[in-house]
Amino acid sequence: MEHRPVLETESNLVITLVADIVAAYVSNNSIRPTEVPSLIADVHAAFRKAGNVELTEVEVEKQRPAVNPKRSIFPDYLICLEDGKKFKSLKRHLMTHYGMLPEEYREKWQLDSSYPMVAPNYAKARSALAKEMGLGRKSKRKKTK
Question: Which of 44, 71, 102, 114 is the most exposed place for a label (fewest CB within 10 A)?
């Protein structure tokens, strides 16, 4: 996919979108060269008509969590508020499926900064494993002077 510079005005955006749509249509359909201006005008008119719709007419419903946030933390898993699925760790799921960081997730759902991203029992098991491996301790090097 080609990258284009950020457009500064709305009219430039409409022109670019019209050009992209017409180019896609012409590349996949046989059309006489004399019909191209009419096609451009029709597509542009559709954008103008769509642009005249007042935003108050369209009511955007606020997304609701899949489960009550208070009931999303269990000892062995967490329930994702986006889709209601169970996970031991939410961080990777949030990034791969929703492009969200834990901070964004907490902010979106108005969760406390202490809201866990890892199930409590899973965190304890990983902590015990790390301690067993000797991680988290300072090395016992002899100081030489």
Answer: 114
Q: Is 109 exposed, middle or buried (0-12, 13-18, 19+ CB in 10 A)?
A: middle
**Residue 85, token pair as written in the block:** 């699925």
Angstrom CA distances, 45 to 15, 30, 137, stand at: 11, 22, 68
What whole-number distance in Å separates Cα of residue 90 and Cα of residue 117?
5
For residue 63, which amino acid is it? Answer: Q
CATH architecture assigned to 69-132:
Orthogonal Bundle (1.10)
List all residues 6 or more positions away from 36 whose beta carbon is below 8 Å from its beta carbon. 22, 26
Across the range 110-132, mean pLDDT stands at 95
Q: Are the beta carbons of 4 and 16 closer than 8 angstroms?
A: yes
Q: Which residues contact 105 (CB under 8 A, 6 or more apart)?
A: 81, 82, 90, 94, 98, 111
Amino acid (1-letter code) at residue 47 = F
Query: Of 25-39, 42-56, 79-93, 105-119, which range is least confident?
Result: 42-56
Task: Return the SS3 of 118.
Answer: strand
